């Protein structure tokens, strides 16, 4: 066993609303997820054969080879994965949307039961980020949502290595299991800054738990999109700056 930590880039990804699907759809989505990730990794030159993989049913945790430049993950790999997902979703079959967390840091690559280390834990926490879930619930056209750690954003996204410009990422605060992380959300092909308050965290059923004070919606949002608030009895169409107020319960 190698107990010396190594600096590596890492990925965690997860299928949106996996638990709500029937058995046949879950099987089909698992197969599609692995196939499309492999295709995108090959297209981006991410050394697929040397990936350290930990399957997790509706997702996977991956430690990348040390020779891979981490900036490829939000550049060539993200572009190829988005294209593969869009092509797949244009055909028949259960729709596949992925949440992807990108991070880098020291960890134990070959642990007794995986790849232990606080950075591995952070990657797993980020993929479950409420703001990322909320962004995907709002922008239904998006097949892929990405969250990167503050460290990854600072060291790679912001350093001119190619890929999307830093201003295509939106700063968020992620609170998962009594831990808090600064991170950045990116929706390839969509303007994440045009979404309203990402504090409204959706659950797997699609309902949203509204943040205190209501949800603010930006006026330059995508035409035709609608925000539905569960239990409020109100729908707002994008295109105006609106703050949805707290509503008193009816007697």
Descriptive terms for the model:
251 residues; alpha+beta; 7-stranded mixed beta sheet; 13 strands; disordered C terminus; Guanylate cyclase domain-containing protein; globular; single chain; two-stranded antiparallel ribbon; Alpha-Beta Plaits
Please give a structural write-up:
It is a single chain. With 251 residues, this protein is of the alpha+beta class. The chain has one domain: 2-Layer Sandwich (Alpha-Beta Plaits). Helix content is 24%, strand content 26%. The protein contains five helices and 13 strands. A seven-stranded mixed sheet has the order 2-3-1-4-5-7-6. Strands 8-9 form a two-stranded antiparallel sheet. Strands 10-13 form a two-stranded antiparallel ribbon. Strand 11 and strand 12 form a beta hairpin. It is globular.
Write the layout of secondary structure elements.
Elements: E1 6-15, H1 23-44, E2 52-55, E3 59-63, H2 76-89, E4 98-107, H3 118-126, H4 130-138, E5 144-149, H5 150-155, E6 170-176, E7 179-186, E8 201-202, E9 208-209, E10 216-217, E11 226-229, E12 234-237, E13 242-243
Parallel strand pairs: 4-5
Antiparallel strand pairs: 1-3, 1-4, 2-3, 5-7, 6-7, 8-9, 10-13, 11-12
Helix pairs in contact: 1-2
Protein name: Guanylate cyclase domain-containing protein
Organism: Nonomuraea thailandensis
Short note summarizing the structure:
The protein is an alpha+beta fold and 251 residues long.
CATH superfamily: Nucleotide cyclase, GGDEF domain
> Can you give the helix content as a percent range?
10-25%
Kindly estimate the percentage of residues that lie in beta strands according to DSSP: 25-35%
* Annotation, overall tally of beta strands: 13
- Mean pLDDT over all positions: 80
User: Which outline best applies?
Assistant: globular
How far is the first residue's CA from the last residue's CA?
Answer: 65 Å
Strand order in the sheet with the most strands:
2-3-1-4-5-7-6
Structural class designation:
alpha+beta
Count of alpha and pi helical runs: 5
Output the helix-strand order.
EHEEHEHHEHEEEEEEEE
Low-confidence runs: 200-251
Overall tally of domains: 1
CATH C-level label: Alpha Beta
CATH topology title: Alpha-Beta Plaits
Radius of gyration over all CA atoms, rounded? 19 Å
Sheet bearing the most strands, described?
Answer: 7 strands, mixed
CATH-derived architecture: 2-Layer Sandwich
Organism: Nonomuraea thailandensis
Protein name: Guanylate cyclase domain-containing protein
């Amino acid at each position: 066993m190698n107990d010396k930590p190594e600096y590596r880039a890492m990925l965690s990804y997860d299928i949106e609303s996996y638990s709500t699907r029937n058995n046949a759809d879950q099987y089909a989505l698992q197969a599609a997820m692995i196939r499309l990730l492999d295709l995108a990794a090959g297209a981006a030159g991410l050394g697929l054969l040397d990936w350290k993989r930990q399957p997790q049913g509706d997702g996977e945790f991956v430690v990348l080879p040390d020779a891979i430049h981490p900036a490829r993950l939000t550049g060539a790999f993200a572009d190829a994965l988005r294209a593969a997902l869009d092509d797949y979703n244009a055909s028949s079959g259960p729709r596949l949307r992925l949440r992807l967390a990108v991070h880098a840091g020291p960890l134990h690559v070959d642990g007794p039961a995986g790849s232990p280390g606080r950075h591995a834990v952070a990657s797993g926490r980020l993929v479950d980020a409420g703001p990322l879930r909320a962004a995907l619930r709002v922008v239904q056209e998006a097949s892929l949502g990405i969250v990167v750690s503050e460290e990854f954003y600072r060291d790679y996204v912001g350093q001119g290595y190619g890929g999307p410009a830093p201003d295509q990422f939106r700063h968020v605060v992620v609170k998962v299991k009594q831990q808090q992380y600064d991170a950045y959300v990116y929706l390839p092909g969509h303007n994440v800054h045009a979404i309203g308050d990402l504090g409204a965290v959706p659950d797997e059923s699609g309902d949203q738990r509204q943040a205190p004070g209501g949800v603010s919606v930006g006026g330059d949002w995508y035409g035709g999109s609608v925000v539905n608030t569960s239990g409020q009895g109100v729908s707002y169409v994008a295109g105006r700056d609106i703050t949805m107020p707290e509503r008193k319960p009816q007697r």
